[in-house]
Design brief:
By secondary structure, this protein is α+β, with helices and mostly antiparallel strands. The protein has eleven helices and 23 strands. The strands form seven sheets. Strands 13, 16, 19, 20, 21, 22 and 23 form a seven-stranded mixed beta sheet that branches. Strands 1-8-6-3 form a four-stranded antiparallel beta sheet. Strands 5-4-2-7 form a four-stranded antiparallel beta sheet, with no helix packed on it. Helix 7 crosses helix 8. The protein is elongated and about 85 Å long.
Length: about 475
Amino acid sequence: MTTMTDISNAARFREFKMPDVGEGLTEAEILKWYVQPGDTVTDGQVVCEVETAKAAVELPIPFDGVVHELRFPEGTTVDVGQVIIAVDVAPGSGDAAPAPVAAPAPVVEPEPEAPKGRQPVLVGYGVAESSTKRRARKGTTAAVPAAAAAIQGEMNGHGAVIPESRPLAKPPVRKLAKDLGIDLATVVPTGEGGIITREDVHAAATPVPAQAQAPVAVGVAQAPAPEAPAVVAGARETRIPVKGVRKAIAQAMVGSAFTAPHVTEFVTVDVTRTMKLVAELKEDKEMAGVRVNPLLIIAKALLVAIKRNPGVNAAWDEANQEIVQKHYVNLGIAAATPRGLIVPNIKDAHEQTLPQLAASLGELVSTAREGRTSPAAMAGGTVTITNVGVFGVDTGTPILNPGESAILAVGAIKLQPWVHKGKVKPRQVTTLALSFDHRLVDGELGSKVLADVAAILEQPKRLITWA
């Protein structure tokens, strides 16, 4: 028989499920918890960071309350639709609450047989028919933080766990301390009421010498190098699990390389006039507040070339045996991040003016550097630019981004001897490489696109005459 207490408790505790943060993704790994049982949370506050096959994403809680229970520890891969956190939304009601239940120890389970019926990939579809896969990182303890805290703490009147002598700090400060490797128990608080502030954490951090930073070529999002795995003394090998973004990249690249017949063409071009234009635009008041660099002109040149040769902006539909002609350009920019190569894109780039395109490129690069590129920002690309010149490389043979028909590689811009007006002179020169899907882009079309980009970079005034 259901009692009024049961009803009130059910109303008090709300559960937040792992959402589908991408396009039909079925699972995500919990990278970090920014809150612990007993913490107060507000609607829209980020409570954890998860990694999908596409990107790392921060998840905000959609309601106010006090954290009652964390269902899974960091390092666990959770199916979409599974409850990951329970929140007491009425902590002052005084009703007894059920004690938090520790999640079972993470185990490596064999891949289950494909369940019959619909796979739940969106919150609200219910629990997956297959059991949740809990693949814990090496060294991850089996018990969830709530269970660990219960051993050292005690339950308060609302069912939340209150660890003993827990330092007082807001979730963003806890995240900062964790990122810096600072134990909050060792930090001297200066905030009102004994609360640890961001300044306290920074003060406790051990200063490290600044490392020399490699020059960043324009347009490529340079992120901090990923943390290297620990190497055991005398070990001859180190094995790194392939998962998340890296696994998705590997699968996509293999699929692209062995599905689409790649053809790559090259052209070396004098970009001295383009470099002069970049210098002039930097002084133009219309471009104030945005970053102007060679990639901006290269991106605009590619957009003009696509307008002149629209057949290159297409995709191959294998299932329906159709060529899908795109009447819009979502321009992808390859970016190197600690989790691997990602390709966010600028939506409807063909409609943007030069200042707008510069602003979009700047936002794309800064977001990628911070590791905050969303899955939506990487979906729906139609053509891509990859700037290998950032590494001092002359050119390469880029692999197509899955679902696209062309990718332009930009090499390093170097001062080289060049025949100009009948005389050998030092000029700014670069090499471009265009890879394309030969199923729908033949040699003539691919050559015209690459030649148009080169012609614009050699004579930037064509941006006006050809636009």
